[in-house]
Structure formats: structure tokens, C-alpha cells
Amino acid sequence: MLRWRNLWLLLGLAMSGGLARAADAGAFFSLHQIGKGIWAAIALPGSHAGSNAGFIIGDDGVLVVDSFEDPAAAQALLKVIREKTPLPLRYVVNTHYHLDHVAGNGVFQAAGAVILAQRNVRAWERTENLKFFGDKITPAQRKTVQSFVLPSVVYRHGMELYLGQRKVVVRVLPGHTGGDSIVVVPDADVVFTGDLFWNHSLPNLIDADTSAQIRSNAVFGHDYPAATFVPGHGQIGHAADVAAFRGYLLALRQAITTAQGQGERGALLQRSVLNRLKDSYGSWNYFDYFAGRNIAQTVAELAGSKRLPLPSP
Ligand SMILES: [Zn+2]
Predict the structure, then answer these.
(1) Does domain 4-238 have CATH number 3.40.50.150?
(2) Distance, CA 96 to ligand 1 centroid (Å)?
(3) Sign of the Cα pseudo-torsion (128, 113, 119, 158, in order)
(4) Domain range list for the chain
(5) C-alpha distances in Å from residue 217, one per residue of 71, 127, 134, 242
(6) From the CA of 157, how far away is ligand 1's center (Å)?
(7) Most exposed of 46, 146, 236, 299 (fewest Cβ within 10 Å)?
(8) 184 C-alpha to ligand 1 centroid (Å)
(9) Can you give the pTM of this predicted structure?
(10) What pLDDT, in 10s, does the model give residues 119-154?
């Protein structure tokens, strides 16, 4: 997710034969079993995976959660799945449209999977992702984003899937983009949260409604108090980690309104809020990269001037 600017290099590689590279999981993610037949693929820092992913093996097939920012990472995950089970790959659920979660869709579709997502993911995947390249987007970058594989089955509020007897609940919750899904395996008390939850990491809030995201994280703690949570970014966590992340979002909003109450605006407000947050959150991942952006974007959100992607009509 931090690698937007590098993405064209990665995808350029993939398009020019990178997919033929040895798909080595060790280059992209660490694999963690978190339930019977359930695996989390946690992105290695600085690797081209870009985000976390995972897979769920049922009685008669496999469901994959998210597909990384580089097709080579998706190939590595496919190889791991093939080592674990001969069962067919049935579904991929994209937790949201951001390119670090969808760029490998084509790898799994080619292997037989149907791509599923909330309906706004289909509306935004090939358009809203262009913004991450900025004004200087090249024709090749544009072409890459415009050829991402879209979900072919979409839903509005969620769905329930069965891998044989194994039930998987796909639930839509608001906050990170306006088209966010979580994937729940009730029999194992596992929740893949997508980017609604970042574990001890500052989040990307470019499309976020933080008040909704705070509510969604409260829902996690309430509805799944003993669950194993796989965040979109960061290590596997539990309810206390979700609560800490929710605490960050609350602190961010509170620090901004406090500073505004003291008459601070603009650069002065940016600086003082940053200093306030640094005491508690300076050690979290991506603090230096995201803190300033989080503040500016949340100031806009609180002022009602933040541009959010428009939902699919
Ligand atoms: Zn992400």
C-alpha cells in the first residue's frame, strides 16, 4: 500500500514476463495457520505483496481473501494453496477496491475462481485506483489499472457462502472506502477485516469515513470478542488490538477538534496534532508516512469537504 509509486515497476515486470518468475512465498509473505484449513498470508515489510491476504479450505473448495498488489505475489499464494489441497479454487473475495488488494485477481480467475465483492468495488476498481499514481500517471500505468480483473458477482449488503458444510459469512461494514467487506468463518472464529482494521499501524484514510470506521471496529469487538482477526495490514490480532486501532481513530479526531478549539488552523494545527499523536502512536508502523495525511484528510472530513468516491448508482 505504501508502494503506489513503485507499483508500475512491479506490474510492468509482471506484464513483461514476471509471472514466469519462480513464485516463492518467502519473498512476499509469511504463512500462518489460524484455524482448521484457514491460513493468513501476512505481507513481509517492504515486499511486493503490499497487503495481507489469506485462504479458507472447505469440504469441497477454497475461498481466497484478497489478491495482493502484484500478480507474482498472487502466484506465490496460488502455489501455496496447491501444496495444501487438491480441492478447486472457487472464490476470491476482494475486501475493497484498493489496488494492493485486487491486482492479483487475474491469477485466481485464471485458476477457476469467481471474484466476489461489494458492488462499489466493481464500480471503482479501474477508475478510483488511477488516483494513486498522481498527475504524472503514464499510459502503461493507466492501462494496468484499466485491465485489473473485476468481480463478476457483486452484492450490496453481503452474502453467505458454503464450501461444502463450511459456512463463510461475507459482511459489508462501512468506513475504509464505502465498499468494504469482512470475511468471517464462524466455525473457527476467524475474521478477515480488510483495511477496516490495521494492526498497530496508521491507516490509509484517503477514502475513509472515520466515524463509520470507528463504529465498524466497535462492531468487531462486540460481535467477535474472542476472534482471531486478520487485518489488511500488520500482524494477526485480537479484540484488544482492534480496540487500540479504534482508539487511534478516536484520538486523531479528538486531537483535531481540541486544536481547533484552541484556535489553531492550517500548518500550526498540523504540527500540534502531529506532536500530540506522536506520544502514543509514534512507534506504530507508517507513522511518519501517514500521520500528516491522516490529519489533513480528517480535518477535511470533519469540515464536510472531503471528496469520497461516489457509490455505484
Ligand atoms: Zn490496503
Answers:
(1) no
(2) 8
(3) negative
(4) 4-238
(5) 30, 28, 30, 6
(6) 21
(7) 46
(8) 18
(9) 0.93
(10) 999 999 999 999 999 999 999 999 999 999 999 999
